[in-house]
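User: Sequence in, structure out. Go.
Assistant: Echoing your sequence, followed by the structure tokens.
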Amino acid sequence: MILLFLSSGLFLGWSLGANDAANIFGTAVGSKMLRFKTAAITCGIFVILGAVISGSGAAKTLDNLGSVNAIAGSFMVTMSAAFTVFWMSKLKLPVSTSQAIVGAIIGWNFFAGFTTDYNCLVKIVLTWAACPVLTAVFTVILYSLAKFAAIRSKTHLLRQDFYVRVSLLVVCAAGAYSLGANNIANVMGVFVSVSPFTDINCFDLFTLSGTQQLFFLGALAIAVGVLTYSKKVIQTVGCGLFSLSAGSSLIIILSSAIVMFMFSSEGLNSWLVSAGLPPLPLVPVSSTQAVVGGVIGIGILKGAKGIRYKALGEIAIGWVATPIIAGIISFVALFFLQNVFKLEVSQKSAQVYSKPAQVCCYKPQSDRLSKPGSDPKIQ
């Protein structure tokens, strides 16, 4: 029965693969430097690695926004987010699963009568706003440096083309790893507290925790979504906003990978804390917004004349509408699940909101996402 409930998370993972994951290599495929099949397979492999190895950081933030404490509630929250993303994808709008799951969780909070941590929500929204801006800034800086180096390079054009293609593949893999590490929380984060899996010791070499097994399933669903249903969004992100060269695509993917890694890496935050610097919020951000920010950064460098503002406006509408639609769907669907199918969607006795706002940021090991019996080594 629990595995049946997990199906909604797998559906959301498939929707993420169909929408957000495509953005990692959409610009590379749109510029015809990589074949779709090659990019999709590479993306799928590294999404899985990122989710299993580094997927726990951003899940903590969603847990503090709204800790869904009943398996039926988790099922309907992720189903609502998945349906929203799928519907937006049908309209060819590159939306965000991060925004969809946050909207659906808030819908659960309202239905269950629990308080939403608005300080945490504000930090999430501010991080969403910072994501495309930071990507645009990184894109401008890296593009300028690359252009400076290319002018002074005497490499033959054919060799340059080869280097760019190889670099695109490597950067695409890095971007897919960051996507898996950051966005797996959207897919399986609400199931962590009710995970049916127990830790597995693999020949005394390493331990695969129940949470990592959960993330592995979610990442597999993402990989399937990439392979089966991502071409439509590629056409919007890769070709709809601005005409991209191969070099521009490389810089955009690299910039978006850096930004997503910044908002998901516990290791980076540990280093910042040890160096006396403020930690970054570990928040599931949108790969779509990151890539769009990078595309706009390139457009600004080239005078902003080639930016297709109509496509940009359609994307912005999708960003605003996604959490609202997901929240409404979640609230209505939970009502039917509880009153028609008589399933428990929340446990009233549990205290959901009890942590201060700073839990959105990196915390020491003892305060990380964990449950009794889980593997503390998960990174």
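User: And one key feature?
Assistant: Residues 350-379 have pLDDT under 50 and may be disordered.
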